[in-house]
Write a structure and sequence with these properties.
- The chain is globular.
- The longest helix is centred in the C-terminal third of the chain and has 20 residues.
- The protein folds into 2 domains: 116 residues, MutM-like, N-terminal (N-terminal domain of MutM-like DNA repair proteins), CATH 3.20.190; 126 residues, Helicase, Ruva Protein, domain 3.
- It is an alpha+beta fold.
- Helix 3 packs across helix 6 and helix 5 crosses helix 6.
- The chain has 6 helices and 10 strands, in the order H-E-H-E-E-E-E-E-E-E-H-H-H-H-E-E.
- The structure holds a DNA duplex.
DNA sequence: AACAAGACCTGCATGC
DNA sequence: TGCATGCAGGTCTTGT
């Protein structure tokens, strides 16, 4: 998403903003549309699941897609679809439409020099694709935790950016049971888990993400990593390379579905 | 302090 | 056909 937006609107001026409701998961900040109008997009990057759209006046537009949000780049449209909540028109460039049926997404504005202290970003764990994210770092973050490793990896303070799909897939690749207490993940397992996390994310990004219902890339194309899931949403089906019977199991942890292979994950 | 459960929303598949 | 139920890429708040 970040790369797609960068290619489409990086360097462009936001000519007009249609704000079609007062907020999403949280209210839009005061003067939201007006503060964006006329600004040039200087850079687009990301921290965890938050898109950071940096503007030429030193303000950063923070965007989270929640569960069902999408940012779609396209030609000017003369009508809005249901759940098109914010539409950004660029000068001499495409529109960007933020559409989010469930409205679990959010947008906020913050001064760039206060970004690290922003409530949403403060306390967030390391970026999983950074070289600084090592087995030793993960092991230290997990030490002493009694919660299940599944829940710990979903905790954005432990490591940033992992969601339900990629946690399930990473635990499968690492051969670690989602029910294992986080504090019992030792050096040998952390040494498998870190590359498993990096590998799953790299593969998913290369595939354009995972399209279940809502997610599309910025250009509207579907991602196709969902066709490469080993365990996620594959209850009862065999996991790759596993010929022990039974197949993939589904359990509920913290109110979320977990998919795993009891034979390959301990 | 750490953890689980509930809340926030809409849409879709399933079963009666 | 209609209706009820359960589930969904997340995370914040509340209660134990």
């Amino acid at each position: 998403m970040c790369r797609g937006l960068r290619a489409a609107i990086g360097g462009r001026v936001i000519a007009r903003v249609h704000q079609r409701r007062s907020g999403l998961r949280q209210p839009f900040p005061r003067g939201f549309a007006k503060r964006l109008t006329g600004r040039r997009v200087e850079a687009i990057d990301r921290r965890g699941k938050y898109l950071l759209i940096r503007l030429d006046d030193g303000v950063v537009l923070i965007v989270h897609l929640g569960m069902s949000g999408r940012m779609v780049v396209g030609a000017r449209r003369n009508r809005f679809d249901t759940h098109d909540h914010v539409v950004f028109e660029t000068a001499d460039g495409p529109d960007v439409v933020f559409n989010d049926p469930r409205r679990f997404g959010l947008m906020d504005l913050v001064a760039a020099d206060r970004l690290d202290r922003h409530k949403l970003l403060r306390g967030m764990g390391p970026e999983p694709l950074d070289t600084a994210f090592t087995p030793a770092v993960l092991g230290a973050a997990l030490a002493g935790r009694k919660t299940a490793i599944k829940a710990a990896l979903l905790d954005q303070r432990i490591v940033a950016g992992l969601g339900n799909i990629y946690v399930c897939e990473a635990l499968f690749r690492a051969g670690i049971s989602p029910r294992r207490r986080a504090g019992t993940v030792g050096p040998a397992q952390a040494a498998r888990l870190v590359p498993a996390i990096k590998g799953v994310l790299a593969d998913a990004i290369a595939a354009g993400g995972s399209s279940l219902k809502d997610y599309v890339q910025a250009d509207g194309e579907l991602g196709y990593f969902q066709h490469h899931f080993a365990v996620y949403d594959r209850e009862g089906k065999p996991c790759p390379g596993c010929r022990c019977g039974g197949g993939v199991k589904r359990i509920v942890q913290g109110g979320r579905s977990t998919f795993f292979c009891p034979n390959r994950q301990r």
